[in-house]
Structures are given as structure tokens and as C-alpha cells.
Design goal:
157 residues, alpha+beta, OB fold (Dihydrolipoamide Acetyltransferase, E2P), 6-stranded mixed β-sheet, 45% strand
Length: 157
């Protein structure tokens, strides 16, 4: 399906991935690539949400730990972790996630508002919820992820 057909029908493709036990989705148009555990260079005295930086074909990319941004504890690396490299508002950054799932095509009419009982952090990051066949998918907003990370980094400085 072409992009123009997607817009007409209201269907958007989402990359789905895990953060802890939660299944999250991100509009695929923001995803540049998905990598296995790449070597990250730690950032001394960096904010906890910064997992590290990596060299991606000559471009230094900051890798953000989505678990930390969502208020969850940092975990050690596993073979399931993946790096989602995103491009949003001219910025290239990565999201360290617990694992990737699938690509879903979701009609905008099937997205419900985020629950009102989410934490303040979660309510900023989650833009809606989609009921898949057997589970809920929380749809995240990449602009808010970037804004939340920058806010946290600036507050720590």
C-alpha cells in the first residue's frame, strides 16, 4: 500500500516492540532501521535515560533507554534487546527496547484514547491504544519521547 493510499484509508503501519511486559507501537514512518545489540559507548556522567552513543555509518547516534524514560529500572543487555533508530523533527536518535514484535497496519478509527489512569510520564508518551487480536498495543509518540529525554537531560545539567 502506498503512502497516499494509507492516508486516504486512515491506515498507518506501526512497528511494535516491548518495554518490560508492555507491547508498544510506533508509526513506522519514524523508524530508519532496527538493529541488534550494537556496541554502545557509555557517556560518563550522562543522564540515566542515555544508554550510550553509537557510530552508525559515520553519524553519532544517542541511544535512549525507553525503560528509564517510562520510569522502569534499567536492565542488563540480553540477546532480545534491539535498537530502534528513529528520525524525528530532524533528529536521529535510538530507542533501546526489550525486543521487537511485528508490523501492524492500524486504521486510525480503531485507536482509542490513552487511559486516564496512566502516570504523568506515560500519559505524555502514549498517544492512544489499539486492541489487537489478543493484546493491547500502546501507541507512543516519538516527538514526546524526544522531548521527555531532552527535558530530563536538561534538568540533570
Amino acid at each position: 500500500m502506498t503512502l497516499s493510499m494509507q492516508k486516504i484509508s486512515g491506515v498507518v503501519q506501526y512497528t511494535t516492540f516491548y518495554c518490560d511486559q508492555s507491547l508498544l507501537g510506533l508509526d513506522i514512518s519514524f523508524v530508519q532501521e532496527i538493529n541488534r545489540n550494537l556496541d554502545l559507548t557509555s557517556v560518563p556522567l550522562g543522564h540515566p535515560c542515555v544508554r550510550g552513543v553509537m557510530n552508525l555509518r559515520g553519524e553519532v547516534v544517542t541511544m535512549l533507554d525507553l525503560r528509564v524514560l517510562m520510569g522502569l529500572p534499567k536492565t542488563p543487555n540480553t540477546n532480545r534487546n534491539r535498537n530502534l533508530v528513529l528520525k524525528c523533527e530532524g533528529e536521529v536518535f535510538g530507542l533501546w527496547v526489550d525486543g521487537v514484535a511485528d508490523i501492524l497496519s492500524i486504521d486510525s478509527q480503531d485507536i482509542t484514547p490513552a487511559p486516564s489512569n496512566l502516570s504523568l510520564i506515560e500519559s505524555r508518551l502514549i498517544r492512544g491504544v489499539y486492541q489487537a487480536e489478543d493484546k493491547l498495543v500502546m501507541l507512543v509518540e516519538p516527538r514526546e519521547i524526544l522531548a521527555a529525554s531532552l527535558t530530563g537531560i536538561r534538568a540533570a545539567a
